[in-house]
Write a structure and sequence with these properties.
Helix content: under 10%
Radius of gyration: 18 Å
Largest sheet: 18 strands, mixed
Number of strands: 38
Distance between the termini: 56 Å
Number of helices: 0
Length: 293
């Protein structure tokens, strides 16, 4: 779609409300700032449904206010490529992936915005699940104000490797792990620079980031102002490893109980320097020992 284009108000009884792409050579290119995919409904992929093929959301283009009864309110993708520098805004999924739901897809987000999407399950902003060797990369993006009824408000990484660079994950809400959730099998996260801030849980643990399996490295990242109504305001580490390096700071996070800063259940690098002002306590180990008061 090029030029002034609006794909709006379409209803599909099955998949693909606004645009459907199938086959490896299929492409949908939202190439102009005036392009809008909005107000469409479907079971999966209310805005855009892509089975293989390529989806391009260029700067200024918007996929907004689409509603999927199952998954992928804004975009549903399996295989192929998603290249995004535009905006996913106020899309809704009854299941997972309010903004984007992808499986085994090369995802590159460069400067895009994922704003105010909702999911009845997890991954309100982005639900990512790809085999190792698949590119999942987010650079200079904003993931803000997404709300999940279950876990993973901003980003839910369920499989594969994700690289975040210079990205802001803020003001998201979820039952648990409101900013970023890393779980599942063969998962790894590397986040460089950027911030995880002002996220909140509604009933469970881990307001900022939860690493339940696999590994995570935060390099030069600020984790601040996150609030949990139960345990762990900043960084929750389960059966996983985490390294906080390169001047990463964990400050000003709060929890109703247990630990405001970092809960480390297994292993990792977490120097007390830069972890401060969290309530209650800064770093707590598996046995409840306070490692950094």
């Amino acid at each position: 779609a090029e030029g002034t284009t609006s794909i709006a108000g379409n209803q599909a009884g099955g998949d693909g409300g606004g645009v459907t792409v199938t086959g490896a050579t299929g492409t949908v290119n939202l190439a102009a700032s005036s392009v809008r995919v909005t107000g469409n409904t479907a079971s999966n992929g209310a805005g855009i449904y892509a089975m293989s093929g390529t989806v391009v959301v260029a700067p200024g283009a918007t996929v907004a206010e689409n509603e999927a009864s199952s998954t992928g309110g804004g975009i549903w993708a399996q295989g192929g490529d998603v290249l995004m520098d535009g905006t996913l805004r106020a899309n809704t999924a009854g299941g997972s992936g309010g903004g984007l739901y992808e499986t085994n897809t090369d995802v590159t987000i460069l400067g895009g915005k994922v704003l105010a999407n909702r999911a009845g399950q997890g991954g309100a902003g982005l639900r990512l699940s790809a085999v190792l060797g698949t590119t999942q990369s987010i650079t200079d993006a904003t993931i803000r104000g997404n709300v999940a009824e279950q876990d993973g408000g901003g980003i839910s990484l369920e499989h594969g490797a994700l690289t975040l660079t210079g990205t802001i994950v803020e003001k998201n809400a979820a039952r648990g792990f409101a900013g970023i959730l890393v779980s599942g099998t063969d998962v790894s996260l590397v986040m460089e620079n950027g911030a995880i801030r002002l996220n909140r849980t509604t009933s469970q643990d881990g307001a900022g980031i939860g690493v339940l399996s696999g590994s995570a490295t935060l390099n030069g990242v600020s984790v601040s102002g996150n609030k949990s109504v139960r345990d762990v305001g900043g960084v929750y580490v389960g059966s996983a490893s985490i390294d906080l390096v390169g001047g990463t700071t964990v400050t000003g996070n709060t929890a109703a109980r247990h630990v405001g800063g970092v809960l480390v259940a297994t292993r990792g690098t977490f120097p007390c320097t830069g972890i401060s002002g969290n309530v209650p306590d800064n770093v707590v180990g598996q046995s409840g020992v306070v490692l950094c008061p």
